[in-house]
Structures are given as C-alpha cells and as structure tokens.
Automatic annotation (TrEMBL):
Annotated keywords: ATP-binding, Cell membrane, Membrane, Nucleotide-binding, Transport
Organism, as annotated: Alcaligenes endophyticus
Lineage: Bacteria, Pseudomonadati, Pseudomonadota, Betaproteobacteria, Burkholderiales
Pfam family, one: ABC_tran
InterPro entries: AAA+_ATPase, ABC_AA/LPS_Transport, ABC_transporter-like_ATP-bd, P-loop_NTPase
PROSITE patterns: ABC_TRANSPORTER_2
MF terms (GO), sorted A to Z: ATP binding
Segments forming domain ABC transporter: 6-247
Name of the protein in question: ATP-binding cassette domain-containing protein
Gene3D superfamilies: P-loop containing nucleotide triphosphate hydrolases
Length: 255
C-alpha cells in the first residue's frame, strides 16, 4: 500500500480560548479526490490555512509524501508541489488569459523574472498555456483580458492557474460557488482531467458535487472530524447527517 500524499496527525488550533480544530487526523491518498464538508464555522477554511502554511497549528504534525512540512512556509510547500485556490479569484486582471497562465508556468519553471533568454521562455510558456486551455470553455478567449471575464470564467481560470503549477496536491476552496451548472461542470471536468496527476482536497457546500466526484468525504463540525468515509457511508452516518443538515439529513438518504 502506497503511503498517503498528505497526512495530518493530532492537529489542533485555538484562537482566544476557542478551539477551532480539535485533534484532527486525516489522510489524502495518491490520486484521490477527498471532499471536505461541514456547516459554516466548522473549521474547513482554518484547516486549509494550516495545510497550505498560511497559519500554524498550535500542535500536531503535517506530512507531505512522508516529509514533515509542519513548519514550512507557503512557498516551501509550493515547491514541494502544493497549490491552492481561494474563494475569491487571484488573477492578474490587466493581463490576458494566456499571459496569466504563462506567468504561472514560468514561475513553476523558475523563469518568471529571468531576463536572459526571456523571449524563448515567453514563447515556450505561452505554448504550454495554450495547450492547457484546449478543451476548456476558455479556449477561444486566450487573448481576452482577464478583467473582462465573467465571474464563472474567472473561477475556471483560477483552477487552471493552479493546474499550470502541475501540483502533487491541489487544495480547492469552494471552486464552484456562485457558478452556473454548466460552469460547475466545466470546473469539475478540469479536476477529473488532471485527477491522476495529483491528489485533490475539495471544500464545497454543493453536496451533489462532493458525493458525485469524491472517493471519500470528511465531515467537520465545530472543529471536530466526525467521519471520513465513502460517500455512500457518509450519507448514512448519523453524526454526519445531524451535524451537516440537522433533521433534514443528507441528500439521497431516506428519513
């Protein structure tokens, strides 16, 4: 059995006497899409911040490919192959869609600010960016300024920017929030196209997406990890149902 790509052991986080995360133990397996769900205030984004290195855990250990990353910075984790999207777009609005992606590729290749052979680097990165765009709803808008894209198109670009880094671990924070059904399908198609190249940890309030696309689902409530199991088992988990949707239960489960 292969070791997990990401492993959290006894992770705790407290703010002003309030326990945000309580003894979290979690694994993300190679090439797995793991869903992370829970009500508002459950601790999902706090957990993402700790995994990505934006905030530190008060205690516990984090491992990526069996390497301790607990004290590593955001940039150090990125160099190990971790990428993260946010709930709001992080694009360069005054650059074209193609140049946004080409910049992300040059950063990955270490040539973003290298002036020597800059023309060769630019041409190469733009070719790779154009290749990444093929088959997406943005393929015909390569030269369009990012600022002119619709909200949904900007969210698709966000995911593409993450994928341009060729991550081993991709953290997606509400990637389909506010999108139409067609845009949501486009985002999840991107995710599945690259799922064998990286592991994905996905936060979403869209239970249908989580249950349809994730191999396992982790449920947080008030900083506690209540369960982590297959979608079918999570649907029938009494604590998960109670914590997430109260008496209404989870979709697809008869009362």
């Amino acid at each position: 059995m292969n070791p997990p790509l990401l492993r959290l052991e006894h992770v705790n986080r407290q703010i002003g006497g309030l326990r945000i995360l309580n003894d979290i133990n979690l694994r993300v397996e190679p090439a797995e899409i793991l869903g992370l769900i829970g009500p508002n205030g459950a601790g999902k984004t706090s957990l993402f911040n700790i995994i990505s290195g934006q905030t530190a855990a008060d205690s516990g250990q984090l491992y990526m490919a069996e390497q301790v990353i607990t004290t590593l910075s955001v940039s150090q984790r990125a160099r190990l192959g971790m990428a993260r999207s946010f709930q709001t777009s992080r694009i360069f609005p005054e650059l074209s869609l193609l140049d946004n992606l080409a910049m992300a590729i040059r950063i990955r290749l270490g040539s973003a600010y290298r002036w020597w052979r800059s023309k060769q680097s630019l041409v190469s990165s733009q070719a790779l960016a154009s290749e990444l765009l093929q088959g997406t709803p943005l393929a015909t808008k390569q030269e369009q300024m990012a600022a002119t894209l619709s909200y949904g198109e900007q969210r698709i670009l966000d995911v593409l920017l993450c994928l341009a880094q060729q991550p081993q671990l991709l953290l997606l924070d509400e990637p389909t929030a506010g999108l139409s059904q067609a845009e949501s399908r486009a985002v999840m198609t991107l995710v599945h196209t690259h799922r064998h190249q990286c592991s994905i940890l996905l936060i979403s309030h869209d239970i249908d997406i989580v249950m349809q696309h994730c191999q396992r689902v982790a449920v947080l409530s008030q900083g506690n990890l209540l369960a982590c199991d297959t979608p079918d088992r999570i649907k029938r988990h009494p604590l998960a149902q109670q914590a997430y949707l109260g008496a209404a239960g989870l979709p697809g489960v008869s009362p």
